[in-house]
Q: What sequence folds into this?
């Protein structure tokens, strides 16, 4: 349960930080016709958010706090990467980190007005990159954290993530008031850059979170100093104040929460391993044709750790005692995708509720229960050392349907924080295979059963309207 509580707390930190990263300090300049929502409606005092120190440091502070919280769990996140894409290697993140900034300057070159004219934008961007470089390089070579691939000791913080989020914050500040889709695109690129650093096994998750914090902080500081030099908040404020938004609740969202199964996923032995409580993370979005009716979908990854106190019932106790071994296991994983209709109820300018029903597929990932040597001074026979697997399991792909609801509080006219709950069901065939016979108990046998899974997922969702 401690892991579940930590996930809830982390989801609150993550969604709040991204929500305020999207918020533009000019607040009410962008209004939706159907809500007429104002920043003054926020649950937080307007004077608090208008404070320059809060505008500059609040979001980075949340990312830095998330870095500390996820530090001890970074091995588990790496385990998820190794489960799905152990051989992944691609250089897309080397280029994607600069894409939000390139998009901003491309818009300016095309004549699309943003917050500032081209010369002032160049000053802001250069200042942001300079401050980012100072932060990242001074810390990389003083903290000397080893990368997860073991290549070099300069992992924390991630320079790619810092650059990507500095670029995304730049695009957000220049064009977020013109259309929130620019902010969504920029931060989406930054998030994918961070994901790419993890997929390429180049960074731990705390490295990426810290890099995001330093990147946003750098852009905030650059704009603060340049605005002081110019004596105003932007060159084109009068133009931006006339822009009005879309009238439908079309949205993109990032979500993180816990998942609870009504049945044990690995129900092969009465005294075998249990996998009932897990986590999920992913993306969701919908396009609304009217204020109430739309179509959308979700893409999520979920993991269900095995209960450690049950995995030891599969081991050959005499062998484990003789060689001082213990068990380690990887979580059972699923990648889920679905599409279907959405329906929205608008209670007020601040609150709405969405209902959905989706159909799709669930793709399973294999995992293992393995033996670990606790005392390396004890000699292990070759027939054990060469194969430390006790058991392996593989869920096959299966049809999945889901229904759910989300209650959203609108932080601003562009962004909301949602509490969601989804009920899903799927019936994958799961193959369970014993490993090294020297490590297995006599009760550990090959099984291939169809699991009947019914699970409730609940957590927090950042909802960005476009």
A:
């Amino acid at each position: 349960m401690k892991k579940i509580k930590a996930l809830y707390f982390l989801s609150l930190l993550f969604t709040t930080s991204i929500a305020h990263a999207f918020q533009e300090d000019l607040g009410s300049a962008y209004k939706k016709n159907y809500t007429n929502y104002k920043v003054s409606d926020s649950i937080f005092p307007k004077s608090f958010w208008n404070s320059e120190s809060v505008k500059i440091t609040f979001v980075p502070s949340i990312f830095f706090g998330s870095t500390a919280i996820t530090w001890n769990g970074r091995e588990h996140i790496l385990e998820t990467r190794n489960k799905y894409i152990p051989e992944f290697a691609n250089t897309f993140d080397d280029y994607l980190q600069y894409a939000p900034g390139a998009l901003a300057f491309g818009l300016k070159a095309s004549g699309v007005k943003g917050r500032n004219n081209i010369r002032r934008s160049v000053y802001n961007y250069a200042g942001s990159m300079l401050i980012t470089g100072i932060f990242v390089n001074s810390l990389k070579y003083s903290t000397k954290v080893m990368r997860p691939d073991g290549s070099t000791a300069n992992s924390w913080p991630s320079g790619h993530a810092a650059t990507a989020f500095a670029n995304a914050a730049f695009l957000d500040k220049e064009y977020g008031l013109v259309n929130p889709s620019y902010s969504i695109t920029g931060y989406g690129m930054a998030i994918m850059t961070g994901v790419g650093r993890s997929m390429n096994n180049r960074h731990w998750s705390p490295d990426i979170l810290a890099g995001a914090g330093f990147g946003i902080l750098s852009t905030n500081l650059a704009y603060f100093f340049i605005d002081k030099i110019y004596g105003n908040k932007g060159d084109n404020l009068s133009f931006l104040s006339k822009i009005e938004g879309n009238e439908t609740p079309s949205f993109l969202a990032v979500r993180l929460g816990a998942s609870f199964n009504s049945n044990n996923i690995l129900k092969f032995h009465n005294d075998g391993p249990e996998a009932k409580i897990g986590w999920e993370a992913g993306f969701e979005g919908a396009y609304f044709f009217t204020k109430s009716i739309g179509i959308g979908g979700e893409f999520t990854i979920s993991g269900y750790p095995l209960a450690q106190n049950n995995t030891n019932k599969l081991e050959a106790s005499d062998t484990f005692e003789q060689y001082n071994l213990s068990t380690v296991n990887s979580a059972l994983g699923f990648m889920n995708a679905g599409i279907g209709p959405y329906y929205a109820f608008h209670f007020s300018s601040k609150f709405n509720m969405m209902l959905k029903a989706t159909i799709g597929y669930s793709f399973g990932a294999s995992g293992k229960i393995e033996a670990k040597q606790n005392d390396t001074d004890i000699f292990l026979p070759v027939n054990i050392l060469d194969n430390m697997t006790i058991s392996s399991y593989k869920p096959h792909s299966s049809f999945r349907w889901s229904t759910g609801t989300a209650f959203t509080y609108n932080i601003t006219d562009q962004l909301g924080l949602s509490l969601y709950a989804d009920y899903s069901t799927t019936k994958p065939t799961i193959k369970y295979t014993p490993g090294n016979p020297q490590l297995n108990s006599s009760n550990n046998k090959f099984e291939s059963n169809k699991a009947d899974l019914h699970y409730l997922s609940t957590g927090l969702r950042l909802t960005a309207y476009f």
Remarks:
- The first helix runs from residue 2 to 22.
- The radius of gyration is 24 Å.
